[in-house]
Amino acid sequence: MYSNRMVDEDEIEDYIPDQTAERLLQIWEDVQRERISNIVDERVRSLNQGMERIHMTAEQSYNEMMRQQKERLARQKQEELAFERQCAQQIEARMEELAQEQNRQTRESVLKLQRYTTKIRSQKDEADRIQKEKQDAEAKKERDRIAAMEEEKRKKEEEQKKKEDLQRLAAQPRDPPPSPVPPPSQPPAHSSASSVSDEISPQASEEMERRRKILDHTRAQSQMITSNAQFESTKKEFYKKIHLPIQQISGTREQIMSRSEALKRAIQEAKNMREDVYMYSLNLAASKFVDQGAMQVSSHKESAFSLAYAIIIIASTFPEFMDILIAQFNAACPFTVPHYISRRRYQSDQEWTAAQGFKANETIDQYENRMMGILRLYAAIIQTKFGNAAIKHPFGIEKGFSI
């Protein structure tokens, strides 16, 4: 049985030959080196394993640390996003509050401005009203003063005229008592042929009476339209179609022709509708032309020929129109008959001025301007040459001297 006791070298030399001992020593050294090498390898493996374990542990620790870092960064990012959302919501809420406050302040400012504007406007209106009342009062005072002066002048003229009449009466034989004066509700003396004196020729009196009957018939037909509520819309329609073109007649040929054609279409439409509507349109057109003569021609005499040309165009298509127009001329201005109305003995001023065609509260200057405007238009009608020679003038210059 082998023993585990260590053998010394001396003992080996005693029992083993030198060569064998050297060989064994060599083997022993080899064994020792191999053993040491194994030990070193084992230690290296242990170290390597330890390093691997340390490396793995460190890697795991690093990975864990990075994961935790990422989680912490993610949580921080989420917290930041949540904080940003919260800030955005707070900012939005605050901006909405500010906008509401600004809107409220703006509304209050607008209301204040409106109240201030209303107050200023009221004050201005009140000041304008006071100023207008003051101006009206001054104008009324001036009118009253002028009226008083005119009244005083008229009275003096009447007194002077009475004195002259008395002087003439004293120099002439007395006439028989005059016929009773008709009451104010009756027509003026110049509206009937029975009251026409020797200041009008028989031919003129006959023509005036004929046209007066035509005008009376036309006005009676027109009254059926104006007094009937069922024709209110028809009356307004034709009034607009006739009134506006007459108002728009100017000095250019194109304007005269276009407005005349518009009048012809309106009158033709009325003629196709009903007889009374036709008479209403003719009477309305004639009265508007007479008004234009009294107002427009009296201040702008050159417009008489534009109106006259349009009248001739209409009368050439509707012959009844000229008789109605001349009848209205005669009623508005007795000088177109021609008929000079002299003052009768014992005739009041009101009766005499009414017989001459004066309007209520019309001054002599206003009356003369109106008469001259109508006479200018009448004269323009009889001397205006119609463009179409094939159509005879409905009231030519020969009519102006036939009476």
Model description:
The chain is about 75% helix and about 0% strand. The chain has helices at about 10-15, 20-170, 200-225, 230-245, 255-275, 275-300, 305-315, 320-330, 350-355, 365-385. The protein is mostly helical and about 400 residues long.
Low-confidence stretches: 172-198
Number of helices: 10
Radius of gyration: 63 Å
SSE series: HHHHHHHHHH
Shape category: rod-shaped
Which structural class matches the secondary elements?
mainly alpha
Distance between the first and last residues' Cα: 192 Å
Question: What value does the average pLDDT take?
Answer: 81
- Helicity, in percent? over 70%
- Proportion of residues in extended strands: under 5%
Instruction: Please report the total strand number as a whole number.
Output: 0
Query: Major sheet, described briefly?
Result: none
